[in-house]
Design goal:
Four copies of one chain form a homotetramer.
Chain A (H helix, E strand, L loop, with lengths): L1 E6 L4 H10 L5 E7 L8 H4 L11 E2 L11 E4 L6 H10 L3 E4 L9 H8 L6 H6 L1 E2 L2 H9 L3 E3 L3 H15 L8 E8 L13 H4 L4 E2 L7 H13 L5 E8 L5 E8 L6 H8 L6 E3 L17 E6 L6 E8 L3 H15 L16
Parallel strand pairs in A: 1-2, 1-4, 2-3, 4-5, 5-7, 6-7, 8-10, 12-13
Antiparallel strand pairs in A: 8-11, 9-10, 11-14, 13-14
Helix pairs in contact in A: 1-11, 6-11, 7-9
Chain lengths: 342, 342, 342, 342
């Protein structure tokens, strides 16, 4: 059994990670930490775990994190980087579900996240945990930077077009829509039910932190800096991301075949038949990204539709996928269930 | 492996049953029937099953139902009773998720369902599939009448009070609220999104078909006819039933202990700590009924709060529980996952 | 023109009051106060008011409240009572939309609201602003206690049965359901979209502050203390309250006629035809209470269904109705629009 | 008083039109027709109109349509064109809320709507009822083609950029999102609550009927055919359209000033301050289009955000605006209320 700890599990990413871990046949959850909730039973806060997890939240300092084989950080940005160096030093592997290790350039990280990075030396070593690109590096990584939710959906949608050199790299548009759980479980007016229900809006048009993350990944694939416009929107639903991606492609390429071949061996990317419109509910609760590619009226503009569950493939599920890779397990272990529909 | 067939799986009960069955380690789904969708791949209609079920819908007459060990009927009321006698004759066991075998009195059944019963001789034999009451009978049953969704939530909530003789049997009130999936997946104006969203209403106050079903069960337990007022309501959510139950109790009984003891050995009934308010989302996608019992201001009125997922404990999950009982398996096989929250 | 001020208009009750007041032909909004938002344009916080209200929030102390004919308090409980005596002294009339003046007994108020009352001498004078009961007293009142949302829906539903002496006064049950806006516009985890959506739960079963308010009103009508069980629930929708009321009635009274006659002259209570099920969406945005009365299967139990918009008839709209009464205007002035459906 | 008739008012556009008309101070609704509901009181189907409209639905042939000054058609596509010629002949003016008169080229209309046009001679005469472009022509029109919902939001968002010649006319992208009421009030599985709730998807990517309508209008403004990619999506909410528009603009134009000046005199277009993100709820129930224009990171890509209520500015409200123009009334008559928020 792989012994794991979860730091900061009072948010949606945390409870979703626990939901997956308690059912994982090769994982034992050793400790779950929270400064604010130390002493509270985890299943008192999250009653869906009643009968599945017999633990209380403990103070991070009191938790046996160094006895773990792997520690997940499901903490706010800027927290993991304080503790990761010591854990790595102690031989513990780490998956950070926040953004601390996603941007390789410390200066750019500071620009977008508004603080100095606490361990820039680990930035270079950390592996960006998108298995569809970095599978081999993840297997041996000491620190995995689990990708953001929007970056997962957007990157997987553009990837075949960028790798193949077909896309116009200067003019990528990602119009992305997310359920409200993406904003987290913190008390704030903007995501109250009465503010978010029966409403639709864009936000962060001037610049969102996932923009540099997506651009970094796609530029590395392209071998040159790509031009990307990224507009996120808030959808009145709890879970799900739908990315609608636009670029132009010259010539007669068979895009359906391109996508199907690219992802044929990927356990968690499902290319739908030509003409399909993926729905976010078909991935609710599961680690699958479903993709469809369109070329309306046979023109130059390509439209890719990509859906994920932001809390699973966009967070906790991808983290478990990374765990499976890091410990040589079947990639789908603990992740092979159908989505909850309706 | 237990070979099963599913008749009429194009509705929400059907797809939910398939979601559970494809993951059940002792079940093989042999065939899925539908008159209207014969020839369509099941996962084309329900994309959450892509990769989990490699079958097309077939015409009922063409399906190898008699080769099955068990056939589920997830059909409209009045359909199963046409086919069940022949299947039973052929040695196939049956679980009917519709209402054909729920009411033991053929005359009363006709009164509420508006048609003659096609096989009244099986009504007496059929076992009402609420394991918390009929566990032993279910094990050997040839025909199981899977309970309705409201009856499951209401009956489990009242049961300890009726069995113990504490409740005033003449004055039970069940104020029940259901998500919209309870109304099924058929084209009708009343359950359109734009009709049901941002709206709350009661319906069927004059008389709902689940009233005689609940009354039959509770009266059998009580040994006399109970007086029941049942008011169902429609909630703007997909899944979940919340039953708020009222009755009066004289004296000083420890109701918390009563409930805890009654359900201590039940794998799918979870009595919450005193003072709790169960939430429907804590049972989303799972077979658990969570219950809390209150006695406001120490008066005579008892308030029981009981929640289930109408499609799981109220339908498909309870059916799988019954399958497990009928074939001598661990009761929780294929049903032991935490709820999806949020 | 009647000059009005609104104290504390940053919540849902406040913005709803402003929405109604800016369209009221006899009202001029002189000032809108907020400690936290002083200096912010009101329509920057509530863009639906762009073009309708050219004011900034001002500090309460800087606001010309004593120049107003009427001041509304849309503040948290315990705020209005600090300022009302001075305003009344200055000849300004007051409508408090919070709970400060709803309970006549200062001791009971303290018990439920957890603080000493700042001006108990005004408690006796304040008029409970339910026009269907207190129309004449409201006309000349200096201080009107605008009723709570649940109390409005519940009281109007029970009223004809209590007034007529038909109801069993010892056993009233009010199973009430509210949209989430009833919980206000303050940052808290429990009413986040991802907590409240796709979920249904009861709360406050042990005792809710609206219980003594309802009991006080109905007991005054009955001439004796009524026995009431009140269970509120949270519905995943923004607006609307649905109260399902239970009591027993002996004999053959024509309840439909009783309700129709009681409310025949009331501009804002609409008794639906026999057999109806009122929907909350039919009163969205309007000051109407729609009621239906049922007697299932002709038994002794009576079921009354009563719906309102919690922010209008349950708060701001009833306040405007009270204003119209206090200043001798047509009762429906500024309130005569159809509900927004769907 | 202007005498109006409404043909086919059993859908959402119809009930919304009636909601506005019953409050319009210069309009008298003479008749409301429906083949399927003849004999039913209108307020029995739409209880929000109780007390506001004392009419039954009548058969179209029995309705006094020729006594009307204006007839609205709120019928399915292909219905109005059967009756409009005779009405026009009789001197009755017409506003069609369906698509029969929106496309000027009969061949193109047939291609997208799949039927022959019944009165192609009126296509040329009909005025496209977008007041921001065709105000003068609307005043004297005999037949007004009320614009589609998506076309209204998209066209108003692109208009200043096209008129000014700043946009790259070959590469317009309109990523549009609509509430479910846009799909109408007809029984179909796809828009059931349990299908549309907690879900987000694109549809009609290969080609949607509003594409040629938008292209026709913008091309006429541009003086050349514009290249447009239009992708509609379904949002789990009842009302509202949010169009996110992309194009490229060379140079240093002050786009904020451009938009503000273009719409300064328009009563129903509200350009928000720079940096804003319009929310659909801020236009719920009202005839306003709110727009913000962005240029992320100062690049060439311009992002315009445009929101409307699909049933008001996208249908019934714009129709009333057109009525006001056609009869020389104040443009905002009957339309000057704030949106319902929250």
């Amino acid at each position: 059994m792989i012994k794991v700890g979860v730091v900061g599990a009072t948010g949606y990413t945390g409870v979703e990670l626990l939901r997956l871990l308690v059912r994982h046949p090769q994982v034992e959850v050793l400790c779950v930490t929270s400064r604010g909730e130390a002493g509270t039973r985890v299943d008192a806060m999250f009653p869906n775990l009643r009968g599945f997890l017999d633990l209380q939240f403990v103070e991070p300092d009191a938790a046996p994190l160094t006895e773990c084989d792997l520690v997940f950080f499901a903490t706010p940005n800027g927290t993991a980087m304080q503790s990761v160096p010591a854990l790595v030093e102690a031989g513990v592997r780490v998956i950070d579900l926040a953004a601390d290790f996603r941007i390789r350039d410390a200066g750019e990280w500071t620009q977008w996240y508004g603080m100095e990075h606490a361990c820039p030396e680990l930035l270079a070593e950390a592996v960006y945990g998108l298995p569809e690109i970095n599978r081999e590096a993840i297997r041996s990584a000491r620190v995995v930077a689990n990708p953001g939710c929007y970056p997962t959906a957007v990157t997987l949608g553009f990837l075949p077009l960028i790798e193949s050199g077909l896309a116009a790299r200067g003019a990528l548009i990602a119009d992305a829509k997310s359920g409200v759980s993406g904003a987290g479980r913190k008390a704030q007016v903007g995501t109250l039910f009465s503010e978010a229900d029966e409403n639709f809006k864009a936000y962060g048009v001037a610049g969102h932190r996932h923009l540099p993350e997506i651009r970094q990944t796609l530029s590395a694939v392209a071998g040159e800096t790509v031009g990307l416009t990224f507009v996120p929107h808030l959808v009145p639903m709890v879970r799900g991301i739908h990315a609608t991606l636009y670029t132009t492609v010259a010539g007669e390429a068979d895009l359906q075949a391109l996508f199907e071949q690219r992802y044929a061996a990927e356990p968690f990317v499902d290319v739908l038949p030509a003409g399909s419109h993926p729905e976010t509910r078909t991935v609710r609760g599961v680690n699958t990204c479903r993709i469809a590619v369109h070329r309306p009226q046979g023109g130059d503009t390509v439209v890719v539709l990509s859906v994920i569950d932001n809390l699973v493939k966009g967070a906790a599920g991808q983290a478990v996928h990374n765990l499976n890779l890091m410990f040589g397990l079947d990639e789908a272990l603990g992740l092979d269930t159908p989505a909850l529909l309706p």
